[in-house]
Structure formats: C-alpha cells, structure tokens
Amino acid sequence: MKGKNPEELFRTEHKRLLRNGEFSMKSTANSCMLVATLIATVVFAAAFSLPGGNNNEGTPNNLQSTTFLIFVLSDGLALLSSILMFLSILISRYTEHDFLKWLPLKLMIGLTSLFFSMTTAFCFTFIIAYHSGLKWFSQIDRCCTRKVNVVD
After folding, report:
1. Cα gap 110→87, rounded to integer Å
2. CB of 128 within 8 A of CB of 68?
3. For labeling, which of 36, 90, 137, 151 is most exposed (least CB within 10 Å)?
4. How far apart, in Å, are the Cα atoms of 10 and each of 5, 15, 16, 19, 104?
5. How far apart are CA 78 and CA 104, in angstroms?
6. Each residue of 58-111: pLDDT tens digit?
7. By the 8 A CB rule, do 9 and 1 touch?
8. Rounded CA gap, 28 and 151, in Å?
C-alpha cells in the first residue's frame, strides 16, 4: 500500500467491484438489447404498414398531416436509439472512468429515448387511426397546424 497514489490504491482494492459492475452492466445491456431488437422489429413493420393506409399510387394518405410527420420521426428515432445506445454499452471498455460517467449516462439516454419515442409513436398512431371519432382532437389539430402569418 505504501508508494501508491490514491487512484492505484483504489484500483487494486476494488478489482472485484469492477468485475461485478462489468457483469451487471453487460447483463442489463443484453436484456435491453433484446427488448430493443423486439421493438425495432415492430417499428420496422410499422414503417411499412403506415396508419391511415396508402392511396392507389402507394403514397401514404396522411402524408401532409403534422401528426403523421411526428409519427414517422418518432418511429425512426425508436428504431435508431433503441439499438445504437445499448450496442455502445456492450462494446464499451468498462474502465473505472467509464463507470463514473459514460456508462450510466448511456444507459439512461437509451432507456429514456426508447420510452419516449415508443410512447410518442403509439400515441400518434392512435390519433391518426381514430382522429375522426375523437371530437377533442380536431381542436388540438387545428391549433397545431394553424399557419402563422409573419409581418415584415
């Protein structure tokens, strides 16, 4: 113990803790990667079976709708964020410095973006599919799609 700086002393005293943390982080990332792969499969299928259907030319019926644009963006975000963030955890080096900041940050970003993008995609799919039966939605839709005139 003599002649070692605090960082070297910490490293030698906590080797087992580092291995346990690496195992825990890898198992969490593997579980999240499995869920992310399942979600990516559903998102990929949703990209080809769009809510609202297609016209005779193959163009989506709701192409000009703001809600459709939000659906498509959240769908793409769910596809990318779900897999890339957890993959970056799996290929990490698992050093002490990684555990201090980057690994918890990557895990939280991955889980948060996965949750919000999937929730947004579900909500806007519901709105696109059932907007004609929702009386309150027409008022919200008018507010969101109202054009603002800019005066020079």
Report:
1. 10
2. yes
3. 151
4. 9, 8, 11, 14, 20
5. 20
6. 788 777 878 777 777 877 777 777 678 888 888 888 888 888 888 889 888 888
7. yes
8. 54
Q: CA 131, 49, 42, 105 torsion: positive or negative?
A: negative
Instruction: Report the SS3 class of residue 60.
Output: strand
Amino acid at 146: R
Return the amino acid letter for 56. N
Longest pairwise C-alpha distance within the chain: 79
pTM: 0.64
In angstroms, how far is the first alpha carbon of the chain from the final one?
A: 73
* Number of continuous H segments (helices) and E segments (strands) in the chain: 6, 0
